[in-house]
Amino acid sequence: MSSSNASNPSSADLKSNADLPNALPAMWRALARGYQAEPGLLVVAFSLSLVAAIPDALLALWLKFLADGLLEGNRSLVIGSSLGLGASATLTWALRVVSDRTQRRFRDRVTIALESHVAELQATVATIAHHERPELLDRLAVLRDQVFVLDHMYMSLFSTAGWIFRLTVTIALLVSVHPALVFLAAFALPTLITSTWRPGVERAAEERGAPSQRLARHLFDIATTAVPGKEVRVAQIGDHLVDERQAAWERWYAGVSAARWTSAVWHTVGWAVYGAAFVGAVVFVAYGIRATPGEVLLVLAAGSRLSAYLGATVGEIGYLRGIWMDGSKRMAWLEDYAQALVENTNAPVPNRLEEGIRFENVSFQYPGTDKTVLDGVNLDLKAGSIVAVVGENGAGKSTLVKLLSRMYEPTGGRILIDGADLAGMRADAWRKRLAGAFQDFFRFEFFARQTVGVGDVPRIDDVPAVDTAVERAGAGDLVDGLLSGLETQLGPTWPGGVEVSFGQWQKLSLARGFMRDNPLLLVLDEPTAALDAETEHALFERYASAARRDGDSPNGRITLLVSHRFSTVRMADRIVVLDGARVVEAGSHAELMANRGQYSELYEIQAAAYR
Hints:
Layout: H1 11-17, H2 23-37, H3 39-51, H4 53-57, H5 59-72, H6 75-124, H7 134-147, H8 152-177, H9 182-186, H10 189-208, H11 210-224, H12 229-235, H13 238-288, H14 293-340, E1 356-365, E2 372-382, E3 386-390, H15 397-404, E4 412-417, E5 420-421, H16 427-431, E6 434-437, H17 448-453, H18 463-472, H19 476-481, H20 502-513, E7 521-525, H21 533-548, E8 558-562, H22 566-569, E9 574-579, E10 582-587, H23 589-595, H24 598-610
């Protein structure tokens, strides 16, 4: 088995990492991150939310004084209470405006920090296994939606603190009339309970239906975007896509709707309990203790405002529980997940390859499946060699490339770099010595220079280096045909942007893979599948000739080529044939043809097709 390290967690570790952290610790961590980003603004915004609550909470008291003054004929009390009412109204508005502006400034500034944090967490995880486990993929999909509104969590917390402060002052005013009125707040507990429980139930229903929701979005994208547009129209599947999307959406909404109705019924019952208690409190004050008219007015005003404050408080708590608290829990989970995969080894990556790369009994299964993609693979890739990997679809060719790129860790066996376990080297350090192009390349819609240059970020603006990479990839004619050469914006959705063909995108991807001058391993995974066989042959022939020149690879670089075209593969020093998750043949083209095995059979079939 491969050596144990933090970047290769066990299934039990991954299962435990799937549990969301507790809400309050998660929210505290999110608050701490906001404080790190903008400490001064956070303190000012929180303080203003409390100060702004004072004038509003005292409104019932001013009404009591006004009633007492009028009944007693106390002119000073009437004038004072009237001024108090005016001041409360004015300050409530003014402080709310200042508080809102401050909170908005804090929110805008902290948004970038949170989005960058989530993006960095995902980018720093060494492997991409979490992108292919459905339960984690659904969780990340929800987090991606929530991170753009997670900044509102701070605003909701500030508002909650302000409403709780108002609630405290109001209860104190009620108790000043009679201590028993404190129980009026107790009758509001059902509304508090249902408000905190309700969003969690609804969010759980939404998450259970997340696969159907993702399917509905995927079908919508198919029906409305340009890339699949031609096939949709030729196949005339537009109506089918609409029907399937509607069915997927209804599967998602059925569970969510049921959860919403159930929670709404209980929430209504909670508010009915409070309404009955409020009426009883007014009757108790007016007839039970024979309070003064001013005190009755205070109870009416404070009790009605208590209802509003409770509604606002539980509403904010509901938002916290439903979106913001849930989002902070997901962000905390991602932090824990990324931390659990932090590599605790730091074996040095060699500056040059002396022996090469060796697979020792390597096996692999993709996360969440029982299918063995590679089974006990033993393979030597000698330093300075060009190695081709062939085999039918599903034989494990691209998986071999992913393991070498540390996108995944072997589930069995180990990969040795000059005798040292690759699992003991940091993934980022190893990848700095890698270069290459992949079959499932990404279309970076930047300026052409940047689209190629991101293959070696420190030299992204080094035009001679980009020109060299373009020449290596045989993409010079492509760049020459662009309106502004390397300074052409790619992608028709951008101002002045141009669209290029799939084959041209692949050439740019190949040029990106050639940006690094001296990688230890150059991976070419079906890098020219969109090009014609003649162009691919000429391109690889030119590269192979250059790679074999004396001094061209002073660091013992290994080139690993995955291709279906045997006219290209035959130029490799060593050809590896995969079948049924195992290596069934390995040798030069001449040796494998002489063996009359699987390679020879596949070669003859393809050659006959060309003839």
